[in-house]
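lol ok so funny story. i was supposed to be doing the assay writeup but got distracted and ended up predicting the structure for this chain instead. priorities right. anyway since i did it might as well share w the group, maybe its usefull for someone
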Amino acid sequence: MLASEKNLELHYVRCGVWIDSDPQLLRRILQNFLANAVRYTERGRIVLGCRRVGETLSIEVWDTGPGIAEVNRDLIFEEFRRLDPGGQGLGLGLAIAERIARLLDHRLILRSYPGRGTMFAIRAGRVAAQIAALAVTVDEPANAAYCRVLVVDNDPAVLKAMQALLSGWNCDVLSARNCDDAQRLTQNLLPDLLLLDYHLDDGITGLQLRDRLTCAQQPCIIITADHGEEVRLAVAANDCHLLYKPLKPLALKSLMARLLAATLMQVS
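and the output, tada:
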C-alpha cells in the first residue's frame, strides 16, 4: 500500500531456496530495507529478489531512488543518523538491521549508484530443504493420507478451521469437541498425532483428556491462548509440545513433520 500511495511499482521474484536463519529477525531486516526503499524513492520501482552466491543466498532489495554518495555509506548505519533530517523516523532502522545481521552471522551489503538507485542485501547460508520424507508402505495407494490426526477443540469454528487446514495437507482428520467424542473416535482408529486444545469444557484440560485416551502414547501437541507459566510447565512435564493461538500454520506443519519423522525413525 505504501508503494501504491507513491505510484511506485513493487515487484518480487519467487525463490524456493532454503536458508539457515531466524524468520522473525530476518523479516525485520527486510521490512526495514523495503520501508527505506519506498521512503526514498520518488518514482520508478522497487524489486525484492534472491541470488545464489556460492553457498549463500543474497536476499536483495533494489530501488530507483537517488542513491547514496560514497562518503555517506558508512554514516547511514550509525544510530540517529538520517540523510534527510526533515524526514520521518529516528534513523535507527539500519543501525538495528546491522546489529541483527551480526547476531545472525549474516552479511549485510550495500551497493548504490547516485542518481540511479540503491541495493541493500542480506546474505545467509543455504541449506537443504527441510522437508521430512515420510515412508509409505507398499500396499498403500500413492495418494494415501500422510498421517491421521486427532483434533479436539470445544469451539466449533476453530475445529472446522483446523479440519480444513489439515485436510489440505492430505491428513486424515478425526475431529472431536469433547472427551467422549475423542474416546469414541479413537476406539478403533489409532491417530499418529494428537492436537488438543488446553482449556476444554467442564474444566478438563487437554492433558487430562490425553490421559483418558487409549492412544495417549502418541505424540501430542497442546494448543492454547494461555501464555501462563503454569500451562507451559505442565505441558513440558507431560512430554508434550506447546503451540500458542493464534496458530501459525507454518509452525504447526513444521512441528508435525518433525514429530512424524521422529516416530518413523523409532519404528525403523
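The first helix runs from residue 2 to 5. The chain has a mean pLDDT of 84.
back to the writeup now i swear
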